[in-house]
């Protein structure tokens, strides 16, 4: 009997979570990202990621939110994800995913720098990353950067180096009016509790009002975007996208250099 009560309770919580998503009964504090005196149409936002599929697996709630608010989205992917020799394939997959997520393809830049190669044993120069980020910010008049935090969601060294590159850019360009936000890495329970995490995210925002919570009102678009990465769309990643809280909500924190 106890297991039945637990099962029913979990089903009710999941259904309530989906209702909160689909019927827009959401408490979103995402407007803080837009609150810098500029209209959304004139706001240039740069996502800085490490590999093709990072945008779909981790950042899609934020991308969907900003795209729906008519922000001008740019994406800088610092490698082709060539760890398994499929860099050219993954390059094309990222183009298709960005088309789904409404990131203009002419505003997508994918690097294949010899010193920025995908891999757990590959350490990326923070000075090189700073130089590349500064070039993109200047070229496109970027107002806001969104990237990984110091842990990088999964602890991947490339994700963590991207964060440090952005941090160093902010430290060496303190005179620029550029804001940066990091995607908060969640503990293992929250990471895999799916849409239920939206309740925990809203509670966290009340406790820590400086954090920004963005709830994904189009999670099906996140699935469709990730499905464009056919080379990566294996069974365990399908499970990840289904049960990962990053499909349903993003918690962002301001990077203060």
Automatic annotation (TrEMBL):
GO BP term, example: GPI anchor biosynthetic process
Enzyme Commission number(s): 3.5.1.89
Molecular function terms from GO: N-acetylglucosaminylphosphatidylinositol deacetylase activity
InterPro entries membership: GlcNAc_PI_deacetylase-related (IPR003737), LmbE-like_dom_sf (IPR024078)
What GO cellular component is one of the record's annotations?
membrane
Q: Which family does it belong to?
A: Belongs to the PIGL family.
Q: What is the name of this protein?
A: N-acetylglucosaminylphosphatidylinositol deacetylase
What species was this sequence derived from? Arabidopsis thaliana (Mouse-ear cress)
């Amino acid at each position: 009997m106890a297991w039945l009560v637990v099962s029913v309770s979990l089903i009710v919580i999941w259904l309530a979570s989906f209702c909160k998503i689909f019927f827009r009964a959401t408490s979103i504090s995402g407007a803080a990202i837009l609150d810098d005196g500029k209209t959304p149409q004139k706001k240039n936002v740069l996502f800085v990621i490490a590999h093709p599929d990072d945008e779909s697996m981790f950042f899609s709630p934020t991308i969907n939110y900003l795209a729906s608010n008519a922000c001008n989205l740019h994406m800088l992917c610092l490698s082709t994800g060539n760890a398994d020799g499929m860099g050219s394939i993954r390059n094309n997959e990222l183009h298709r995913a960005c088309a789904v997520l409404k990131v203009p393809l002419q505003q997508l830049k994918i690097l294949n720098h010899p010193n920025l190669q995908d891999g757990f044993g590959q350490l990326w120069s923070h000075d090189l990353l700073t130089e590349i980020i500064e070039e993109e910010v200047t070229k496109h008049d970027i107002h806001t950067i969104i990237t990984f935090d110091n842990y990088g969601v999964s602890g991947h060294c490339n994700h963590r180096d991207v964060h440090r590159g952005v941090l160093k850019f902010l430290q060496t360009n303190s005179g620029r009016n550029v804001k940066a936000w990091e995607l908060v890495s969640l503990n293992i329970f929250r990471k895999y509790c799916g849409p239920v995490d939206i309740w925990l995210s809203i509670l966290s925002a009340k406790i820590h009002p400086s954090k920004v919570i963005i709830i994904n009102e189009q999670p099906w678009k996140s699935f469709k975007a990730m499905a464009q990465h056919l080379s990566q769309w294996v069974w365990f990643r399908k499970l990840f996208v289904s049960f990962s809280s990053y499909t349903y909500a993003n918690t962002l924190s301001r990077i203060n250099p």
